[in-house]
Each structure stands twice: as structure tokens, then as C-alpha cells.
Amino acid sequence: MTKPAQNIFQTSERVARMRASATLGAMQKALALKAEGVDVVDLGAGEPDFDTPAHVRLAAQEAMSRGETKYTATGGTRALQRSIIDYYGREFGAHYEPAEVMATAGGKQAIFNAVVTLANPGDEILVAKPYWVTFPEIAKFAGATPVYIETERNGFQLTAEDVRAAVTPRTKHIIINSPSNPSGRVIPPAEFRKIMEVCAERGVYVVSDECYLRFVYPPGEVFSAASLAPELRARLCIAGSFSKTYAMTGWRIGYALAPAGWIKAMLLVQGHSTSNPNSVAQAAAAAAMNASQDCVREMLGEYARRRAWLIGALAEIPGFKCFAPEGAFYAFPDVRGCLSGRVKTSAVFAEKLLTDEHVVVTDGAGFGADGYLRISYATSLERLKEGITRIRRVAEACAR
Ligand code: GLU
């Protein structure tokens, strides 16, 4: 018998500290089951079920026909940069120069660039719980230390007071995500401003992940940190994405808006890692921002309909407690009422949903909130209803 090969791939210390993405993990499970022909209800992925709008797809085809298939500038084409600048001007009254914007391969790369360019080993990076799975891992990759802000006692609402209490002389960044993935919480604009005031006062660099910018349900208001006064934006990087807003997840296209010095450093990193984002996707993204935004309003309307149904349905599941999310497209129920000797954690509960009922959800522990589940409603109402019927069966069995 041959001896098992020794693992010669000793990862670097930075990589050894990283955990795999729980959201991508849930997505892989769903894909694997679907490939086997299993009737899966996939409430795991944070991925719009809508097609990319027709006019956006057409813009990509036209770009290909024009031969826009070559390298572009590292930070994206002038046309895309212009679209982003004009959009923020129109929507939020913000003034950005071309040197203050860059295109990236998805919002994730914008956050990655923003953090790795400034953070040093020993720096602290503030992340409010529950957090998007990737935030702490980017901090670790940068050699910095993620420092968590607890918000559960306040219904997962991050406040300026929480931030003030968490800042130390070692704090380099805070990563803010409103609307939040996974909680759907939205920081009210006045509170957001106060958080930015604390950060400006203490010299903290803010990364505002605005991937779910447009997905706020009435009476909430769409708010971008771009609309704040310039003195509050001196240390601000906005990380944006086309993935959710225009149902363009697979195109991998996002952007960063930040002061020129920060963007210059981010271009250095991007120039030696991925270079420019996909040229055809850039043309599609520019078209998405320049055209009518009716498609976004339509998607929001559909999410609102699903949300209303889902929150009512979750309230009726024994052992579940769920607040109404103000934004994004996730419900984040507390399922501790279903846990007991046999099913001790939300991870076991999520696993049971998968094995017994073929329902994929994402365990809250990956987001720093053990005892919760993230349920994505970026899926049709019909599938959502089927999923909830199955989840209810498992919850009832646990309650017995
Ligand atoms: N952002 C989405 C989610 O949270 C996509 C997966 C990922 O990139 O994490 O499900």
C-alpha cells in the first residue's frame, strides 16, 4: 500500500487564518444537489433569480461586435467611470472625479482592494455582527485583526455609540454594510452620519459596502455615504456592485469610489492581481447605469411582495422569531426556539433542512450569529412557498 502523500502545501500564516466562505459553501451544496437531479429549494444564495435586463445584455453583445474584447485601463473604461460618476451625481448629488473611481471584478474586489492597501499587521478592523462572511476574512488576509461589534441586544442595529466604544488607537478601518447582508437592517441616514462623524474624529478609514443600496423597503430611504459632506468623506471608500442592482452576479463587475490617493493604491494592487475587469461586462454595466432604472424598481417591487409574504409565514413557524428586514433580500430568523438535545445548533438545523427536505439556507454562524439562519428571498414566490412548507415540517419535528 502506498503511503498517503504528505501535504506539501503549508499555507502562509495569513491564509491559514482564513475560513472558507459560508455563502459560497451553501451555494456549492445547492449546485451539487441540482446536478444530481434532486428537487432542491435553494434559499441559500444571495443571487437574484431575475435575468440580467435585456438592454444590458444587448449592450454586451454590441460591445463584442465592436471588438471591445481587449484590455482596458486597469480601473475600467472612461465610459464606465463616467457612468458611475454621473449616476452618483444624479442620484446623490455627489461630485467625483475620474481619479476617484475605479471598476473592479465585483464589489468583493473593491472591498479587498480598499482594505489590503491600508491595513498593516496589528491594525484592527471593526466589523459589526452579523457581518457578511467575507469581511473578517479580508481583514485576516491583510494581516490585520477583525474586531467585532455586538449588536444583537439592539436588534442588530449598529449605532454611532457602538462604534465610538469600539474604536481604539489601533483601529484602521470599519466596514459598514447598510442594507446589511445577512440581517437586512438599514442604518437610518441620521445615524449613518453620526457614525461617519465618529470615524472622521478618530481618523478611521471607512469602507461602505453599498451592494444592496437600492433595495430598501418603504418607509425606509435609499441612502449612500456619497451624499455626505466632503469632510466626512475624506477617509471613505464606497464599494459598489452591479450584481444585485441589475441581476448581474455572473458578470463580476463592481466599483470603488474613494479619494484619489486611496484609488491610486488600489490600482497598484489590482494592476498586479487581476488587471482590468472584463471589458464586455464593463460595457454592459455602463449601459445599466445610463438607461432607465425601471428594471430596478420592478425587481424591488417583486422583492417587496415576497418579503411581505415571507415575514408573515416565518412568524407562524414554531420556534422561529423574525424581525422584518428593512432592506436587501434576506430574512434572518432566530431559530433557537427549535434547538434542543438532538438539534443543538443552527448549523445542525441547517444540515437537517438539507438532508431531510433538500432546502438550502445559510447558517447564521458563518455571519457571526449562531442560532440564526439566513433565508434568501431572491427566488420565486412559488419556490419560496415550497421552501417554507418544508422548513416548517422540520421545525415542527424539532418542537415535538
Ligand atoms: N453575496 C452573496 C451572498 O452573500 C453571494 C455569495 C458571496 O459572494 O458571498 O450570498
Short summary:
The protein has 400 residues and is of the alpha/beta class. It contains 13 helices and twelve strands. The chain is globular.
Q: How is the secondary structure organized here?
A:
Layout: H1 13-16, H2 22-35, E1 41-42, H3 54-65, H4 78-92, E2 101-104, H5 107-118, E3 124-128, H6 134-141, E4 145-149, H7 160-166, E5 171-177, H8 189-202, E6 205-209, E7 236-241, E8 254-257, H9 260-271, H10 279-290, H11 294-315, E9 330-331, H12 346-357, E10 359-360, E11 362-363, E12 373-376, H13 381-399
Parallel strand pairs: 1-10, 3-4, 3-5, 5-6, 6-7
Antiparallel strand pairs: 2-8, 7-8, 9-12, 11-12
Helix pairs in contact: 3-10, 4-10, 5-6, 5-9, 7-8, 11-13
The chain binds glutamic acid (GLU).
Residues 21, 23-24, 45-46, 108, 133-134, 181 line the site of glutamic acid.
Structural account:
It contains 13 helices and twelve strands. It folds into two domains: 13-51 and 295-399, Alpha-Beta Complex (Aspartate Aminotransferase, domain 1); 54-290, Type I PLP-dependent aspartate aminotransferase-like (Major domain) (Aspartate Aminotransferase, domain 2, 3-Layer(aba) Sandwich). The mean pLDDT is 96. Strands 2-8-7-6-5-3-4 form a seven-stranded mixed β-sheet, with helices on both faces. Strands 9-12-11 form a three-stranded antiparallel β-sheet. Strand 3, helix 6 and strand 4 form a beta-alpha-beta unit. The chain is α/β, with parallel strands linked by helices and 400 residues long. Helix 4 packs parallel to helix 10 (279-290), helix 5 runs parallel beside helix 6 and helix 5 (107-118) packs across helix 9 (260-271). The site of glutamic acid has 9 residues, from helix 2.
